[in-house]
Amino acid sequence: MSPTLIWLRSDLRIHDNTALAAAARRGPVIGVFLRCVPQWQAHGHGANKLDFLRRGVVALSESLAGLNIPLLHRDIERFDEAPATLLALAQELGAESLHFNREYPLDEARRDAAVIEAFEAAGLQAHGHRDAVAFTPGELLTGKGDMYGVFTPFARAWHKAVSAERLALHDAPEPQDTLPIEADPVPALPELENTPVDARLWPAGEDPAADRLERFLRFRGRHYDDQRDFPGIRGTSELSPYLALGMLSHRQCLQAVMAENDGALSDGDAGLNAWVGELIWREFYQHIAAGFPRVCRHRAFQRHTEALAWRDDEAGFRAWCEGRTGYPIVDAAMRQLVATGWMHNRLRMVTAMFLAKHLLIDWRRGEAFFLRHLVDGEFGANNGGWQWAASTGTDAAPYFRIFNPTTQSQRFDPEGRFLAEWLPELAELAPKARHAPSDDLPSGVDYPAPIVDHKAARARALDAFKRLPPSS
After folding, report:
1. Spatial contact of 407 and 413, defined as CB atoms under 8 Å apart
2. Which of 112, 207, 410, 444 is the most buried (most CB within 10 A)?
3. How high does pLDDT run on average in the chain?
4. Does residue 69 belong to any structural domain of this protein?
5. Pseudo-torsion of CA 81, 83, 87, 88, nearest 10°?
6. Can you tell me the distance from the alpha carbon of 52 to that of 381, in angstroms, rounded to the nearest whole number?
7. Helix, strand or coil for residue 63?
8. Is residue 448 part of a domain?
9. Within the chain, what is the greatest distance between any pair of CA atoms?
10. CA 140 from chain center: how many Å?
């Protein structure tokens, strides 16, 4: 029987992998991973995610080896090399079909379509599977037949239409007979712009992902709604890196929730329900990428906001990047990002809104900085979050909603614990004094004064938004 190729990308797992399960049903399987570092870097992904990806591929290769499935590697420069590379490999191995799980941002979707076209032109089969989402973009539509551009009705439609079949898990394949093909060693990464964060912060692979999911649901899931906004508390799941690279599937998460919540996804425990909502947000942004491809072209979701007069402020941007804006909650969050490759979700909103509103700097610059540092960097969620904060996207915060960083700090880090952890120069201050250090800091404390006044910055942002043409 001719072998079947499974093309693995952001689905680095053997359990509940739709394409892998389908390929294994057809006969002997050979895995292939196309490494496309230059284009990934052109898309903005930095050392933290690329290192996590490589370590995930190492873990995947070991798991596949336990099933006697060899994983082959090919390096390409650009996505448009994928069709010819995969077709040549299929012909070399005598494979008649290729399976993969679809990805939905514009360049990835075009690449996948080109692969299918190339295989069909050569008389071979290529099958793209729905895996990362419960509904293929275009399945859930408004009453007018349009793609949803607002989250709440999308989530309502998702809950109404979701079924046990869509959330059913795929078993890992049984071990197959050994093939006369050796797996390729996982190549080292080329020299990167930055040194990745300590790998121990984010152990890669299915096992660490499953362990984190279990511990989150056992110890923190039911408190998620109450604790998720407090960065000094470990109240979030910290699963976003594993979901972004498919070391864990959304179905595994939802099934685990139902096991804890008497089979419910929208009723029962408020904490678990709130976390389900975050998983649906992730899917919503995949639908946005597919249905409104302009967001994949560095365009605003809300077209009229493209006329906004952003400021050219290099000094302000550098201060924001380096965590020295003089607003402790912003600075602590930015230092957390650079040091760990991750930032607490509440603080992603606070820091993004500070850049886009207080400094009136183009949100795309912040989006790119985040993607370059995030270990969980994923286009849909990152772009969606930034456009929300900048009032240019779906469900965007009203333009007049501008977080006061000091108030956010006092509300969500009342004892200043998070501030003390990431701003050691302020740790000796009284807890309540850490939120807005006075001008007369103790001798030897090196912390900058605020680079912008909140009231003046708010007025400037409001004026800029009021000058926009009305939305159509």
Report:
1. no
2. 112
3. 96
4. yes
5. -10
6. 18
7. helix
8. yes
9. 78
10. 22
Structure tokens at 209: 């992902």
Q: Enter the tokens of residue 357.
A: 């509103």
Name, in order, each residue with C-beta under 8 angstroms of 361's C-beta and a sequence gap of 6 or more: 310, 311, 313, 316, 317, 320, 355
**Residues 375 and 328 grouped into a single domain:** yes
Interval 131-181: pLDDT, tens = 999 999 999 999 999 999 999 999 999 999 999 999 999 999 999 999 999
67 and 110 together in one domain: yes
Please tell me the pTM assigned to this model: 0.96
Do 263 and 144 fall into the same domain? yes
How far apart, in whole angstroms, are the C-alpha atoms of residue 85 and residue 443?
A: 63
Alpha-helix residue ranges (DSSP H) falling in 304-362: 314-322, 328-340, 345-353
Which residues are annotated as catalytic?
278, 281, 310, 345, 363, 386
What are the tens digits of pLDDT across the range 359-379?
A: 999 999 999 999 999 999 999
Q: Helices 47-65 & 206-215, crossing angle to 10 degrees? A: 100
Residues in contact with 284: Cβ distance below 8 Å, sequence separation at least 6, in sequence order: 148, 151, 154, 155, 384, 394
CATH code: domain of residue 52 = 3.40.50.620
Both tokens of 330, joined, read 């912003």
How many domains would you assign to the chain?
A: 3
Domain region containing 89: 4-130
